[in-house]
Amino acid sequence: MEKNKIFKGMLLATGVAFAATSFSTIAANVPAGVKLAAKQELVRGNGTEVASLDPHKTEGVPESHVIRDLLEGLVNQDAEGNVIPGVAESWENKDNKVFTFHLREDAKWSNGDPVTADDFVYSFERAVDPATASPYSWYLEMTTMVNAADIIAGKKDKSTLGVKAIDAHTFQVTLEHAIPYFVMMMGHTTVKPVHKATVEKYGDQWTKPEHFVGNGAFVISKWVVNERIEMVPNKEYWDNAHTVLTKVTYLPIENQVAEMNRFLSGEIDMTNEVPSEHFRRLQKEHPEDVQIKGNLCTYYYNFNTKKAPFDDVRVRKAVSYAIDRNIVTDALLGQGQKPAYFLTPEIISGFTPELPEYGKMTQKERNAAAKELLAAAGYDSSNPLKFSLLYNTSENHKKLAVAISSMWKKTLGAEVTLENQEWKTYLETKKQGDFQASRAGWCGDYNEPSTFTSLMEGSNTSGGIHYQSADYDKLVKAAMETTSDAERTKLYYAEEKLLAKDMPLAPIYQYVTTRLVNPHVGGYPANNAEDKLYSKDMYIIAK
Fold this sequence. Notes:
The chain is an alpha+beta fold. It contains 17 helices and 19 strands. The chain has a 6-stranded mixed beta sheet. A 5-stranded antiparallel beta sheet has the order 1-5-6-8-7, covered by helices on one side. A 4-stranded mixed beta sheet has the order 2-11-10-9, covered by helices on one side. Strand 9 and strand 10 form a beta hairpin. Helix 9 runs antiparallel to helix 12 and helix 16 runs antiparallel to helix 17. 51% of the residues are buried.
């Protein structure tokens, strides 16, 4: 994401004893002279059916898109990716270790209850509680929140987490180590609050429309699984007066061609992505609809290092080297994606990844090295490499998997079985380690390198559990604990270098976000590098 401005909304206090940040009210902005349509309804493609709408039980982008409209955390982002107030209207910190958030007094739940500091205490404790089994509990551990790691490991009670309500509208978080980008981390889905009484009354059923209580700009009005999620404005939302849309609909369309056709017929206002084979035609015939922006995401194939054949680093390297990334980015995608030879994308703020040695080779040289590595591992024409590649249902993922498996067949003689699963099943299969190689993509949870490097830390259920390198974990820990920005950057380089050496994953390309957006959609944040879209900031312009 090119616009690396995310730090502007947050005061970094490295080396400063005490820092405070406050803001005036941020209002939705419809430019003067813009005529609004009589019908203010937005229909968005969302790629797949959500696995859950409980923020403490989700881990994917499709879920975050929807939850961002339904629940509001301490901070939000503006159209440029800057951190701005959410429930917290101001905050301060001492030595980047003790963060105090002042909650707005007019923040309410959709049932009229006030949003209080106790709601955040309950929600943060719920996220780390082993009984919740949050797939993103590791995220709070990465903040170094006091006792988070021990609570997640079952060694301490959730009540010992370093959070407290000083009063109804003052929430304080204490970290074990100084984290200058902590406020930025508070924009993530996992740290959004939930309504305690509702969760305790309805259990796993609390997100159903008839039970749902949220504090975001919208509430669910209808949810038909595998068909649509509909929402309407939350009349109790503190800034509801500036919400323009009267209805937002999310459609879980996995087939990009079908989604494109529904957009072109006028049924959808904004797609999740575009079918790669139609991109050039769309750019030529519908240039006003095609939106492209840099994205803080990396597409890669994840190897299960605990299962043959990928328990052998030579096999992992051979399979990675044999992927012609330039063909992927230029011929198969062609929308501005860049070849990836490292996990952290180049548009990350404050860090420039170094190209590893294999990235400096020509593809011919990589192919030759791949053949040598595979032969050394004991594979040849009489004993060909065989493995399965898992991917979640998507025509775009399928096309890449077919193309890359043919590269492996041509260069290595590998026999690859492609296996696709729907999103929820795919996530569970990966979590259980029941795969050999898997398609994956990682989008930064905040604009700082650790959001990528922490992915492969050993306790991270999204990636690291299939790697579990003690050497790598030491580097991650050291990077979190150092108070020196220069030393932290050195450690990030060391982490990337070790990933290139061990190859627990094969980076393939650095994303761009390409979608179709009807020009009548106002407020679309074309410069938000994390693709954080808030429906409360959008509106429909009269034609």
